[in-house]
Design goal:
10 helices, 6-stranded antiparallel sheet, 606 residues, single chain, alpha+beta
């Protein structure tokens, strides 16, 4: 039976981590990350918790939770992810390197996993993406780190035979010991990676042995730390008992010996075939056979690391319909063993190949939910309701922008007020339908502009004057807790109302009242528009239109459809008109943004 270098599907399992750290890569180490539609459900959720929550912090790490991506304004709240009964904290390094260490804490506050990622520091937000099963941790200056959900799979409470704990040095200079923040393990040694120093695997072996013996799970393995990342994940394993399917006396004697001999343990890590395992054992005076190895697997040699095509099966009882998760079918799975690839506990079977499908006429959107196929000529995008329509926004919860001068804000146009922003054309001029007053773009500051969206539900055009994100008050779209006169800005409000392009329609689509209780962070809603962008209107006269919308990111073709909708609604002075064809001009400094000027008479300029 030939193995391809794999000890486990989990990239945090010490032998696999050591293989990956050595530069082998997933193909060599055969670290096939589980597709979590199968037997190992890891579905993280995000929570905001008190930044002062006490933690056992590994040496060299710190909590650094910020209010937003810009500046160094610390937050009273920290975003964390939870999954499988564990809490995952995105910690930064004391030396302020551009990287994070995502520490997994069990319910007792033990650090049971540590995932290091380069590319960002100082967490301020975490987002969960069901479509590709990833967790995106947002840091300073727009930098992010991304984790697969599979990386959150820690061999812990779900496996009675295995458990992880992370050890770290008590100091990074002078004499140090290994610790888990509660007790010290192994013999003290000078900090360093040389022979007989703390990071020497033979010295670290003693710490792992003591920790796992204390847990009464004496078989163990561990990841190899470095001076720059002096953290070691120790996996403790309970040996099989006589009478259990995987118990084999010869194999137990071999692994019992590895507990006391790191040289033997290191050699066993290289045993990626039955023949190599037999050879390694013989070199150390142990006689094992293929039959011993097969028995230690409990299902015969053909079952170890099996990969078999499965009959199509549905992972969810109710799936594939509108607003439901897609139906998943596991087409291939991989099964693994602890502590090594060859022996002795059946760990997990997880899908390495899956297919996902929705009912006819539906497709999987960015949040991994089945939604109607977007009609040709429309833009269909789903957004977190929490961030686009929310009356209880703060900088800490991510609803209010970091530049906002106020501590609280509201986001989005209430459903009851949407009609106040509907625009119709009379005699070629743009009027607010509800008041029969001409539309006029604000000029109160350099950030003033008029946002427009064309609702795909009924082709209605809505225009909202904004000053930055502060809106012009119309109808019931006012400040929260106070009433300002119509036509004024919400800038002066204690709790100002802001909006984005998505926020104009979100209140009506999500059916939320105002004031409203904040929806859950994971709640998303699809918005369909014909077009969106900005428009310049002077006392009812449309001067130009653009596709400037960071939320919907309309294309040039989408802009042309917006123009066509304006013409259908009663504004004649957009091309094509007479000899005037489209003249979409790139907007300086904004990639992918174009502007079309209005035309009059026989002239192709206003």
């Amino acid at each position: 039976m030939v193995f391809t270098g794999s000890w486990s599907n989990s990239p945090t399992h010490p032998p696999v981590k050591a293989c990956l750290d050595s530069g082998g890569g997933q193909a060599v180490c055969n670290c096939a990350l589980p597709d979590l539609s199968g037997e190992v459900p890891v579905v993280p959720t995000v929570h905001l918790v008190d930044a002062q929550t006490p933690l056992r912090l590994p040496t060299g790490l710190k909590k650094s939770c910020m209010q937003g991506p810009e500046g160094l304004h610390t937050s009273d709240l920290c975003p964390i992810a939870t999954a499988n009964g564990m809490s995952f904290w995105a910690l930064s390094h004391v030396d302020n390197r551009l990287g994070m260490a995502i520490a997994a804490y069990d319910s007792s506050g033990n650090v049971v996993g540590l995932i290091e990622k380069a590319g960002a520091r100082y967490v301020w937000d975490i987002e969960v993406y069901a479509s590709n099963r990833t967790l995106v941790i947002k840091g300073q200056a727009g930098n992010v780190v991304t984790l697969k959900w599979a990386e959150l799979l820690i061999p812990q409470m779900s496996e009675p035979t295995t458990a992880n704990q992370v050890l770290w040095p008590t100091a990074t200079s002078g004499l140090a010991s290994w610790t888990n923040g509660v007790a010290n393990y192994g013999a003290p040694a000078p900090f360093g990676s040389g022979s007989n120093q703390l990071l020497d695997p033979y010295v670290e072996h003693g710490a792992g042995k003591q920790l796992c013996a204390q847990r009464q799970q004496p078989w163990f393995d561990f990841s190899n730390p470095t001076v720059s990342s002096p953290f070691s994940t120790v996996t403790c394993i309970s040996p099989p008992l006589a009478g259990q399917p995987t118990y084999n006396a010869a194999m137990k004697a071999l692994l019992d010996a590895a507990v006391n001999d790191h040289g033997l343990m290191a050699a066993l890590r290289t045993a990626t075939t039955d023949d190599l395992l037999i050879s390694v054992a013989a070199s150390r005076g142990f006689t094992i056979t293929s039959a011993d190895i097969a028995q230690s697997r409990g299902h015969g040699a053909a079952f170890a690391n099996r990969k078999r095509a499965l009959a199509a099966r549905t992972a969810l009882a109710s799936c594939g319909g509108a607003n439901q998760l897609p139906c998943s079918q596991c087409t291939r799975e991989t099964c693994v063993y602890w502590p090594f690839n060859f022996c002795c506990f059946f760990g997990v079977c997880s899908c390495t190949e899956s297919s996902y499908s929705c009912a006819a006429g539906l497709q999987i959107n960015l949040s991994g939910v089945c939604q109607p196929v977007c009609p040709i000529g429309q833009i269909c995008k789903d957004f977190p309701v929490y961030l686009e329509y929310n009356d209880t926004g703060t900088k800490q919860n991510g609803v209010c922008e970091s530049w906002l001068e106020k501590a609280h804000c509201a986001k989005g146009i209430p459903n009851s007020a949407l009609a106040a922003y509907e625009v119709v054309f009379q005699g070629g001029l743009a009027y607010y339908k509800s008041t029969n007053t001409k539309v006029h773009t604000w000029t109160v500051s350099s950030a003033s502009e008029t946002l427009y969206v064309i609702d795909a539900r009924d082709h209605k055009i809505y225009m909202v004057n904004v000053d930055g994100r502060y809106i012009e008050i119309r109808g019931g779209a006012n400040c929260v807790g106070e009433t300002r006169p119509a036509g004024s800005s919400t800038r002066g409000c204690v709790t100002p109302r802001l909006t984005t392009h998505a926020g104009i329609l979100m209140g009506s689509l999500a059916g939320l009242p105002t004031p409203n209780s904040p929806p859950g962070h994971s709640v998303r809603h699809q918005i369909k528009v014909i077009g969106a962008g900005t428009v310049k209107v002077s006392h009812g006269v449309v001067q130009w239109i653009s596709n400037d919308s960071g939320h919907f990111k309309p294309t040039q073709e989408n802009l042309k459809k917006s123009i066509a909708q304006f013409k259908t609604a009663g504004f004649p002075d957009f091309p094509p008109k007479g000899d005037c064809s489209y003249n979409l001009k790139p907007v300086s400094g904004k990639e992918g943004v174009y502007r079309q000027d209005a035309v009059t008479g026989t002239h192709c300029e206003l």
